[in-house]
């Protein structure tokens, strides 16, 4: 058409050039013989106009074809295609039909039930497809596979006309299935590239089906349609509404102008990138390009079996820009990159370069910190797909075969932020710098222990002020007892001075020291009681040596003191948080004959001598005072002191 100048001289709209190519092939096969039919009056006016143009140019078209055959030495028109294109045509004749189930209008079980009721039988694999059979695709669970010749019978089931079953190439369905498996519950999808309304509807139906339990807040599928014409946008919108999709929104802006600050894209977590590619892995490129809104300018190169280097470089440059920009969205967790090309420049090299570029940008100083992406294992496996050739992990690659067209798919996941673990010393130092833990690094007491330590210090101070007074009031003439009290106080002070380096040892030492002080008071009470029956000259000395598990060992010696010369006011011991109960002492005294002025004998009491008429226990000071008074009375009455009231040392 170009060589005969038909394309330049005839005023045929570009959207009708497909019709021109189809009718030209038909007229070429029939040697440009006119149609012989009775329904010519019913032919659409556009078809009639194209027919008239072709018949006017039939001589020039035939001459152009003859020159091409002579130039290449072709025996027939079938020989005009290269061997690679001939192989692709042979594969396309045996390609099975792939159809995905529209879950917005039906379900997989319902479709299978309808097919079986229509006479279809289900087999296990694609290799077993023969006759009126179907099977489930090994990679995508919502795709059913049929033999190529059953398309007419599928229309008879009304599954296609009701949009419950959609015929589409498998290479267009792998991307939506990968997105559905990666999308979190509260995330949206952004689709960028070259695709049809069927691919958009498939993605929207899968996302809606996965999150159908959350009907109030379903994920949204955003579509960049800046590269589409008005007719293509209208076609896409019609296809989406026909399929029953309500979670699709169009974005008219160019993808390169979008960023993470766009309010519409705040919840986008997965980007499906299906850029324009060479379609070199597709066995039926004409049908594929027309159905998927592809670039028709590629058909001329594809008919020659190879793509011009300039066009390939242009496609690769656009693909690099798209994937680099997709990795810049800060909240995107995964990017799915899918093409139908067999060129490594459009597949592995584009993805590898994008990962290196993203890592280099994140390492540059002064640039915004960008999380790294990594290649993740494919969500599809090769185990059940025998026709898949060599595998290249972590990419998913299908080579063109008689079972399916070829495709390439890669999943780029965002790496999680590395977890920074600090040493305990660093955490304490940082907390001390902020004044949070009150310089815990200098070995202070914890808050709870510090509170207990403050209470103990208060109690120790109170004890130091009360215990020496008790010793002085009871033993004013005994200097050794004063020295013992000072030794106890010095031991307390020394333990207090060493508490900063001995946390737990200090606590145990203070408790032991309190026990020693209590024991000294107990011994004083016992000696005071026993002084009523022992002479002054036979007063033994008692030595108590409490040993503490500290660097300082304190030995305290307590001696009984003589009774005070004057009455002393009873000393009340301060109330302590923990008091030690003193065990009662049983005193057995020899019988004593009292003078007549004593009151009559009282009945014997348990634990006391019959001649002892005290009814209750008295503090040591009262006991000593009463003993001195009784001794004075006895001495005045008889002229000598009674042995019971001889002074004793405590």
UniProtKB/TrEMBL annotation:
Positions of region (Disordered): 438-479, 623-650
Keyword terms, alphabetized: Methyltransferase, RNA-binding, S-adenosyl-L-methionine, Transferase
InterPro entries: MeTrfase_RsmB-F_NOP2_dom, NSUN5_7_fdxn-like, NSUN7, SAM-dependent_MTases_sf
Gene3D superfamilies for this protein: Sun protein, domain 3, Vaccinia Virus protein VP39
SUPFAM superfamilies (alphabetical): S-adenosyl-L-methionine-dependent methyltransferases
Domain of life where this protein originates: Eukaryota
GO biological processes: methylation
Listed GO MF terms: methyltransferase activity; RNA binding
Binding site for S-adenosyl-L-methionine: 227
Biased composition (Polar residues): 463-479
Catalytic residues in the record: 340 (nucleophile)
Family to which the UniProt record says this protein belongs: Belongs to the class I-like SAM-binding methyltransferase superfamily. RsmB/NOP family.
UniProt-recorded name of the protein: SAM-dependent MTase RsmB/NOP-type domain-containing protein
Protein's organism: Amphiprion ocellaris (Clown anemonefish)
């Amino acid at each position: 058409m170009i060589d005969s100048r038909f394309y330049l001289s005839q005023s045929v709209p570009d959207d009708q050039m497909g019709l021109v190519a189809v009718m030209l092939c038909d007229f070429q096969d029939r040697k440009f013989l006119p149609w012989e039919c009775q329904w010519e009056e019913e032919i659409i006016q556009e078809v009639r106009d194209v027919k008239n143009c072709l018949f006017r140019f039939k001589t020039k078209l035939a001459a152009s074809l003859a020159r091409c055959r002579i130039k290449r030495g072709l025996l027939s028109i079938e020989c005009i295609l290269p061997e690679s294109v001939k192989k692709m045509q042979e594969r396309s004749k045996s390609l099975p039909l792939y159809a995905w189930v529209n879950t917005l209008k039906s379900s997989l079980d319902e479709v299978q039930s309808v097919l079986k009721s229509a006479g279809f039988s289900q087999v296990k694999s694609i290799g077993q497809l023969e006759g009126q059979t179907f099977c489930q695709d090994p990679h995508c669970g919502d795709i059913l596979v049929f033999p190529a010749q059953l398309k007419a019978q599928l229309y008879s089931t009304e599954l296609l006309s009701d949009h419950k079953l959609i015929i589409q190439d498998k290479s267009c369905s792998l991307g939506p299935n990968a997105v559905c498996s990666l999308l979190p519950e509260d995330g949206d999808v952004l689709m960028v590239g070259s695709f049809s309304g069927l691919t958009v509807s498939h993605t929207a139906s899968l996302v809606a089906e996965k999150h159908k339990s959350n009907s109030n807040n379903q994920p949204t599928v955003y579509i960049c349609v800046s590269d589409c014409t008005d007719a293509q946008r209208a076609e896409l919108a019609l296809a989406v509404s026909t399929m029953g999709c309500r979670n699709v929104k169009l974005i008219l802006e160019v993808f390169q102008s979008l960023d993470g600050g766009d309010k519409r894209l705040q919840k986008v977590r997965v980007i499906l990138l299906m850029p324009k590619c060479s379609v070199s892995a597709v066995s039926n490129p004409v049908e594929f390009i027309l159905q998927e809104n592809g670039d028709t300018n590629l058909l001329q190169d594809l008919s020659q079996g190879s793509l011009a280097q300039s066009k390939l470089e242009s496609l690769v440059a656009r693909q690099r820009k798209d994937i680099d920009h997709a990795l810049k969205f800060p909240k995107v967790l995964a990017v799915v990159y899918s093409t139908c090309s067999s060129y490594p420049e459009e597949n592995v090299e584009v993805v590898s370069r994008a990962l290196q570029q993203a890592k280099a940008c994140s390492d540059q100083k002064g640039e915004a910190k960008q999380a790294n992406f990594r290649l993740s294992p494919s969500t599809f496996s090769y185990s059940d797909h025998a026709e898949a050739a060599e595998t290249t992990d972590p990419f998913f690659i299908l080579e063109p075969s008689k079972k399916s067209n070829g495709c390439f798919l890669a999943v780029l996941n965002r790496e999680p932020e590395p977890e920074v673990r600090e040493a305990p010393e660093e955490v304490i130092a940082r907390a001390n710098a902020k004044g949070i833990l009150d310089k815990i690094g200098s070995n202070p007491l914890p808050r709870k222990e510090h509170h207990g330590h403050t209470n103990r210090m208060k109690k120790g101070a109170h004890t130091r002020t009360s215990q020496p007074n008790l010793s002085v009031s009871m033993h004013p003439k005994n200097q050794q007892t004063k020295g013992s009290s000072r030794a106890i106080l010095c031991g307390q002070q020394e333990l207090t001075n060493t508490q900063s380096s001995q946390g737990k040892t200090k606590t145990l030492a203070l408790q032991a020291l309190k026990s020693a002080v209590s024991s000294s008071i107990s011994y004083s009470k016992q000696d005071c009681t026993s002084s009523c029956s022992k002479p002054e000259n036979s007063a033994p000395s008692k030595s108590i040596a409490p040993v503490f598990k500290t660097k300082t060992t304190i030995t305290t010696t307590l001696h009984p003191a003589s009774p005070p010369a004057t009455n002393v006011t009873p000393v009340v011991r301060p109330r302590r948080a923990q008091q030690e109960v003193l065990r009662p002492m049983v005193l057995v005294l020899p019988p004593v004959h009292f003078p007549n002025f004593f009151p009559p004998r009282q009945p014997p009491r348990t634990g006391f001598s019959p001649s002892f008429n005290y009814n209750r226990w008295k503090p040591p000071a009262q006991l000593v005072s009463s003993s001195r008074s009784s001794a004075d009375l006895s001495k005045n009455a008889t002229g000598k002191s009674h042995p019971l009231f001889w002074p004793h040392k405590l």
